[in-house]
Amino acid sequence: MAISIKANGAVSIEYEGKYAGLDVENPETLISDKASPSFNNFMLRNAELRSRPAVTQIYPGPSTQGWALGVTSFGDINGTTHIVMWEGSTLYQFNPALLPGNPWATVGTASPGDMGQNTVTYRAFANQIFYGNTGFQYVRSGRSILTPFLAYWDGLSSAPVYQQTYGDASTSNSVAGISKTDSPTVGGSLPGAPTMTGPLDIGGAYLGELNNYLILANVNVKDEGTGIIRNYPNLMWWSANGLPLQWDPTQNTSAGFNAFLDVPDVITGLATMGVAGYLFRTNGITQFAPTGSSILPWQFNHMWASEHGIGNVLPWSIAQYGPNCAFISTDNIYTLSITTSQPIGGTARDAIFADIANSQFTPFATIVPFFAAGYTYLTYQIYVTVNNFVRLYVYSFEDQNWSTWDLGLINSPNYPVLTCAPNVV
Fold first, then answer.
1. Beta strand pairing status for 200-210 and 177-178?
2. Neighbours of 28 (CB within 10 A)
3. Alpha helices (H) along 277-396
4. Residues with Cβ < 8 Å from 184, sequence gap 6 or more?
5. What angle do CA 385, 391, 393 make, to 5 degrees?
6. Fewer CB within 10 A of the end CB, N or C, for the chain?
7. What gap in Å lies between CA 387 and CA 392, rounded to an integer?
């Protein structure tokens, strides 16, 4: 607001428009009256200044460890909604009947090994929740390296499923797997044509779905015959069309994989919007779209594939809500549309990147459409752990400004640990 004092001593206050939010790009003497270099714990919504919600704990861990590796919801075939969480090697389900005590009820063993502090990637498909965890992010002291896997739970069965038995009686520790009989053929088609005994366990750092295909990106493959795990950070592998348990291209030609050997960086994320999907790389983005062919189901287009360029440098900064997708690159924070990207860091960019540089753990991001029924507030939120608390940067898509909140989110007795993006809706 601008204050004007007239010659006769009269004072008038005029409102000059919506708040500009956080501004650390300009000298404080030149900052607009509608901006601030350091304000905290306020919401900027509909041109109003409001106090923020009392968010004090994102997700209490089911056990005393508190390593929540992912939290989401999905609807089963009967229309029942399940809220689930992963920790260790266990899948939990939220049960409000257990309140005021621990509300997380054990569903069952979720993985072939302890997932440690490695973030789970998940996707609802065919009224089931599919998920995986390749163990590439953290390897906690005293814990073994996790077997790559993909698993699912339908909300009705007594336990999740991560193993699959094939016609030759071999068993993989992933529902995305290859039988022992077919492993030498499939392995010989992978980059470097390695000799594989099989059966093969397939996992990926990122999981998505487009056109009835489940998709894994930044792939890890374990040969159960030798115990060797091979990493393919530039590889995308997809299931057969409409068959999320079939990943063998020798059995179904609509399943397959593509290794992007023509790009200089690695895949750091995956998003699908409308009729197209996007593979985020360190210095670029690759778009893929359905072709209608079951043998060659995708057309790939590198939006750019240079040594340096706009890409996603933080694996878990990608967040999506409908047509809105945002991510963090080397030079700015961006939103992504079907054809292009736009910077949104604005006058808050330097503060965000300074805190990310000093972060104790990998930052996470999410897009939140509302905080309560009837209170729409579409925001992109970046959670950064600094100095034993979590600083939350909130970007308003409507007002195009940034605000900061400081959250005391304690996930362990000693310090707050973020191991997944929160589901705060």
1. antiparallel
2. 11
3. 349-357
4. 195, 196, 197, 198
5. 125
6. N
7. 13
H or E element at residue 184: helix 183-189
Q: How far apart are CA 82 and CA 129, in angstroms?
A: 10
Instruction: Kindly tell me if the per-residue pLDDT of 326 is higher than 50.
Output: yes
Q: So what's the pLDDT on residue 359?
A: 87
35: CB partners within 8 A, 6+ apart:
19, 20, 21, 22, 23, 347
First to last CA, the chain: 33
Confidence tier at 403 by pLDDT (50, 70, 90): very high
Rounded to whole angstroms, the Cα distance separating 347 from 35 reads: 9
What sign does the dihedral 356-361-362-368 (CA atoms) show? negative
* CB contact at 8 A, 149 and 162: yes
Domain extents for the chain? 20-51+319-425, 56-311
CB count within 10 Å of CB 403 equals 25
Cα 380 to Cα 182, 220, 368: the distances in Å are 44, 30, 7
- Rounded to whole angstroms, the maximal C-alpha distance in the chain is 96
